[in-house]
Amino acid sequence: MMEHTQLIDAIDIRTSIRAYDPDEIAEDQARQLRMTLDAINMLSGLDIQLVLDQPKVFADANASGHFTNAANYLALVGPKDNDEAREKAGFYAERVVLAATLYGLGTCWVGGSWNREEAARHCQTGRSKELYMGVVIGHPEHHLTYTSKKFEELAEIQRTHRESKSYEAFTRTMSAEAREAAPDWFKAGVEAARKAPSARNGQPILFSWDPQTGTAIAQIDPELNGPTATNDLGIAKLHFQIGAGSGEWGWGNGAMFIKQ
């Protein structure tokens, strides 16, 4: 894995890890993560926090077998009742997830499969902020074997890990002709978004390309607009942006991506 250091490489090998080794995250890895978080929080205005060694947060999930040895997490903290901040939390926390993937760590987004009250006790929120969601983080089970695998092996694991919606499903608001005529950067962006995590693997985000303006649009599928869809929108936008190569999204449902 060492020769693969780009975020697009992380997209190609990242999977949701539910079983972890009990080994602690090494001090140098924790320091790398916190440095990444410092930069991300300054850029986003969020307060994403790394919380280590709190297995009580996942006691029920570990006991049921939903997780194994889950104990560490990223706490996604931001302003209360703010949809844009929730979207940013998805976008920027996934950026940390991809960095952690390149460090050889495993991750899994969590919404309901943890003790939220216990999780909130170990992070700082204050009166004006709230805990949106979390991301389990740690060493994947048998991690020494896992991290010794070649990039191509990890990419194959990701490819067969779960089913993903097709390019056609992600772009179902477009005609067949428009899908075919879309530029390569748009198709590459959608391909990266197909590999993005989402709540219950619902993949509720739709993408379209406007030939008149040359911009892409991301929107929440109205048929799949649940409580975590705004977070999923941010995650999918990040994957699309990395896959497209360059460009920038506006915030919000239905916002445009301007290719640079």
UniProtKB/TrEMBL annotation:
InterPro entries: Nitroreductase-like (IPR000415), TM1586_NiRdase (IPR029478). Its cofactor is FMN. GO terms for molecular function: oxidoreductase activity. This is Nitroreductase. Belongs to the nitroreductase family. Residues 7-244 form the Putative nitroreductase TM1586 domain. It holds the Pfam family TM1586_NiRdase. Keywords: Flavoprotein, FMN, Oxidoreductase.
